[in-house]
């Protein structure tokens, strides 16, 4: 059994505001340890549950946040940027490298929704994302990608609203709330010792769900994106197939979510470059 952990940071234990997740800040240094604790607890739980291999894919910001030296020595970690499938890189492998289940650890709710540090790929500028009319978090986006490879989502951790969101895209997965949402920048947090125990127990149970299934072809996917400024929507249309259909909105349609997520990455990269420091 091989498990892939997609590890994001906004949904980690103790994380509640931007400085907690921005590389280079003192708060980020402090929160890296709690982020690593969450991920390591999942690693331990999956091995407890019978996993033979656990690969961690760093999925936050610089993708260089986890403390490798604090992870269980049986795990391996993919760190760094520029990966074909970004947050779920590794799920596409077949044969001996094939993944049997994936965990979304440290996830969060989507742009425009309630939730601690809620966003979708971009910390700001992007105010809403919808897939076939359904508001989309990163969890929903990535769940469509992994489904095309027959890999089930078996565990989701984050705040309480992230766990509620996951009911829509991974109803059978185990969920662990490490904090309860109060506002976008406030939460009632559990201690790392407590959340580590909860995550480890859930991962052990979730290992039983790591059974590959037939690939799910859910397309076509129409993705709609709303920005906080009209010029960002205009900038996004540089990407082939992306069209502006309202003052601050664009949309595109992809036959597969593999294509859809790569187009999404291209749009967010272009838009990020179009944001001006003071006016956005």
Polypeptide structure, described:
By secondary structure, this protein is an alpha/beta fold. 30% of the residues lie in helices and 24% in strands. It contains 6 helices and 12 strands. It has helices spanning 26-48, 138-147, 160-169, 192-206, 230-236, 257-274; strands spanning 2-7, 53-58, 76-78, 101-105, 126-131, 134-135, 153-159, 174-183, 186-189, 221-227, 243-246, 249-254. The strands form 2 sheets. It has a 7-stranded mixed sheet, sandwiched between helices. Strands 6-5-10-12-11 form a 5-stranded antiparallel sheet. Helix 2 (138-147) packs parallel to helix 3 (160-169) and helix 5 packs across helix 6. The relative contact order is 0.16. The model has no long low-confidence stretch (mean pLDDT 97).
Structural class: alpha/beta
The stretches of 5 or more residues where confidence is low (pLDDT under 50) are: none
Major sheet: size, sense and barrel closure? Answer: 7 strands, mixed
Output the number of helix runs: 6
Large-scale geometry: globular
Sheet-strand content, in percent, reads 15-25%
How confident overall, as mean pLDDT? 97
Rg calc: 18 Å
State the gist of this model.
The protein has helices at residues 26-48, 138-147, 160-169, 192-206, 230-236, 257-274; strands at 2-7, 53-58, 76-78, 101-105, 126-131, 134-135, 153-159, 174-183, 186-189, 221-227, 243-246, 249-254. It has 280 residues and is α/β, with parallel strands linked by helices.
Feature tags:
280 residues; single chain; seven-stranded mixed β-sheet; alpha/beta; five-stranded antiparallel β-sheet; globular
